[in-house]
Amino acid sequence: MPVAAPPVPVLPGPPLGDEPFWIWAVTLVGLLAVFALDLWAGRRAHEITMREAGRGVAIYVGLAVLFAAALLVFGGRHDATAFIAGYVTEYSLSVDNLFVFLLIMTTFAVPRAFQHRVLLVGILIALVMRGGFIVAGAAVLSEFSWVFYLFGAFLLLTAVKVVRGEDEDAPYRENLLVGGVRRVLPVTEDYDDGKLTVVRAGRRMVTPMLMVMIAIGLTDLLFALDSIPAIFGLTKDAYIVFTANAFALLGLRQLYFLLDGLLSRLVYLQYGLGLILGFIGMKLVLEALHTNTLPFVNGGHPVPVPLIGIEVSLGFIVGVLAVTTIASLLRTRLRRGATL
Question: Comparing C-alpha atoms, which of 241, 20, 16, 284 is closest to residue 133?
Answer without folding.
Answer: 241
